[in-house]
Structures are given as structure tokens and as C-alpha cells.
Specification:
Length: 83
């Protein structure tokens, strides 16, 4: 399972809002989805790490909309403990 979040500089283009534009139809509850998408919360990302670290083992990735790149950040439990 994966937790991914999007990073975008909205100051350059207000039409590219960081608000999630995709809705998962894979499951009835978003936390049960194979991939969970969230906005990049900056220093508050640790809240996501800690929340999901309690429920299951996920790998966290950052997708940057500006550069169209994906960065693997690590295991959710390790990230929760580190921050």
C-alpha cells in the first residue's frame, strides 16, 4: 500500500490548486484504498505519517506536479518515528 502526496507551487499557476482533484472509487473508505493521495502539508506531513503508521505498513512517495517526478520518502513507520 502507498501514501503519496502532491507538491505544487500554486503561486505560479492558480489553476493548479493543490486540492485533490481525483476521487478514488476503489473503496468505500479512502483509508482502504491501495494508493492514498494527500496534499503536501509541509511540516504537518508528520500528522499523516503518524496516522497511517498506526494502521498498516505503507510506503510514502512525493509526486511533484511542477517537475512531474516521484520521490520515494520511505516506510511510513520509519517516517513517523523520525519526525
Amino acid at each position: 500500500m502507498t501514501l503519496s502526496y502532491e507538491s505544487v507551487d500554486v503561486s505560479a499557476d492558480a489553476s493548479r490548486s493543490p486540492v485533490i482533484r481525483r476521487v478514488t472509487t476503489e473503496t468505500a473508505w479512502p483509508d482502504d484504498a491501495t494508493v492514498i493521495r494527500a496534499n503536501d502539508l509541509g511540516v504537518r506531513n508528520v500528522e499523516l505519517y503518524r496516522y497511517y503508521a498506526e494502521s498498516d505498513a505503507r510506503t510514502v512517495y512525493r509526486y511533484d506536479l511542477n517537475t512531474d517526478t516521484i520521490e520515494r520518502l520511505g516506510n511510513i513507520q520509519e517516517l513517523a518515528m523520525r519526525h
